From TrEMBL:
This is Anti-sigma factor. It comes from the Bacteria. It comes from Pontibacter diazotrophicus. SUPFAM superfamilies: RmlC-like cupins. InterPro entries: ChrR-like_cupin_dom, RmlC-like_jellyroll, RmlC_Cupin_sf.
């Protein structure tokens, strides 16, 4: 039988990334990352880029990337695909939780 990795939703502790931004690392293996980010109302994650594509799924709240269509708001169920090298940052006027997956860590 294959080994199955999992995270119990009731158990993980959120780690601070920056003021108002917390994360839970769901999977961190060479070449692949899966992270939940929780952004407090009015806070954000700094602008950065990846050398590989970056994907975002909005789980709850409102996610805003000021670089997408002048700061378009994306609600729960929205999906964004950032091609490799695309600078982006995450903000939220209401607070949000997003699932981020990519193949490595930010380069800057």
């Amino acid at each position: 039988m294959s080994h199955i990795d999992y995270t119990d939703g009731a158990a993980p502790a959120w780690e601070s990334v920056s003021e108002g931004v917390e994360k839970i690392v769901l999977r961190a293996r060479p070449g692949e990352n899966r992270v939940l980010l929780r952004i407090a109302p009015g806070k954000g994650y700094p602008k950065h880029a990846h050398s590989v594509p970056d994907e975002v799924f909005v789980m709850d709240g409102i996610y805003v990337d000021p670089g997408v269509e002048g700061g378009r708001e994306f609600g729960a169920g929205s999906y964004l695909y950032y091609p490799a090298g695309t600078e982006h940052n995450a903000t939220s006027p209401t607070g949000c939780t997003i699932l981020v997956w990519n193949s490595n860590v930010p380069k800057g």
